[in-house]
Fold this protein.
Amino acid sequence: MPKNQIKVLDLTFETSIPEATIQAEVKRIADEMNRDLVDKNPIFLGILNGAFMFASDLFKQITVPCQITFLKLASYEGTTTTGTVKQLIGINQELKDRVVIVLEDIVDTGITLDTIIRQLSGYQPKEIIVATMLHKPDATKMKVTLDYVGLEIPNDFVLGYGLDYNGYGRNLPEIYTLVEEE
Ligand code: 5GP
């Protein structure tokens, strides 16, 4: 197997974004936030599981007074006609009148983020700001505003840096792209 490739379960992936590139983008976002968020007393909301690594790396570099908490989207089969309902769980902080910064691992179709923003709006925050480490612009079909984006990537399946394949690969410090079988 070539040096830049790894096998995770039954699939082969190859490095597409090195660790140094990711860390440079995280630092850039942190620098921008440190300028933009002065006197805003923001609360960061990391979306589990995927965003834990981005949230951790970013949060360490935030120098304005701030808080962080983590939320999860729980899927359950609803009795509505829409089928699967995704509900944001874990909100036990007061978000009313707060500047909320959603931290996502990746925005693909944008459906997840759209769901999150709709539900958060119900808590009447002062402002909802979105930061995502990765964005697949060609796949995004929902109208979502992304205030901070680490890197734009093609519409391929990736893993590493918090992102998984069947639960594996989240520990990898770089990002890997699926190698299509011949
Ligand atoms: P969306 O709702 O924007 O289509 O998808 C968002 C979620 O799907 C992400 O939070 C992530 O969990 C998952 N996802 C989307 N694209 C990828 C990908 O390329 N790799 C992995 N591992 N997960 C992805």
